[in-house]
Amino acid sequence: MLSISFVFYLFLLIVLLFLGFRSYIWTDLSLIEYIKRSSNLVPFKTIIIYVKPISEGSMNMDIRIKNLFGNAFMFLPMGIYLPYFISKINKISVFSFTMVILLFVIEGIQLVTRRGSFDIDDFILNLFGALIGFSIWKMNSNQKLIIRDSVQSC
Q1: Do the domain assignments include residue 29?
Q2: Which residues of 123-148 are buried (b: 16+ CB within 10 A; e: fewer)?
Q3: How far apart are CA 134 and CA 82, in angstroms?
Q4: Where do the VanZ-like domain residues begin and end (predicted)?
């Protein structure tokens, strides 16, 4: 059952990241110019843009939710699926390294194929979401170990 949900999750992720309708005004630019104009390498630049208006109430709430929470929770399931299916990714350091590589590859593909931009803030939020998922996985794994050990000791 978990395998089927993982395949479904991957399908949705591919659609959201690479196949969804996106309209960019820089379609006539060379790839180098496109990369320059559609990349954000300044950490927290767009996050601050979305968080600041919360207190002011000056921005549509849907935009904030989609960009902040959507990016964070899009990769939350990855924090559960990866360590479940690949036992070597069961340590936080290995999981984090794997996610950093995976997210850089995804951001790079989006940029080169012009299906999105390279935004370090998206990267940060995606990694944060994956780490939340990993924490959930570890809590559940630890609970199962504790229960199993307590049943065996009885």
Answers
A1: no
A2: bbbbbebbbbbbeebbeeeeeeeeee
A3: 9
A4: 6-138
Q: Is the pTM of this model over 0.70?
A: yes
For residue 78, what are its two tokens?
A: 């990855």
Per-residue pLDDT of the chain (154 residues; tens, 9 = 90+): 789 999 999 999 999 998 876 655 566 888 899 889 889 999 999 898 888 776 676 667 777 778 889 999 999 999 999 999 999 999 999 999 999 999 999 999 988 888 888 999 999 999 999 999 999 999 977 666 555 555 565 5
Q: Which amino acid is at 131?
A: L
Domain of 90, in residue numbers: 2-21+38-153
Beta bridge partners of residue 40, listed in sequence order: 119
Q: How many CB atoms lie within 10 A of CB 79?
A: 23
Domain count for the chain, please give it: 1
146 is a domain residue: yes
User: What's the Cα-to-Cα distance from 65 to each of 51, 60, 126, rounded to whole Å?
Assistant: 10, 9, 14
Place of tokens 């000056």: 58
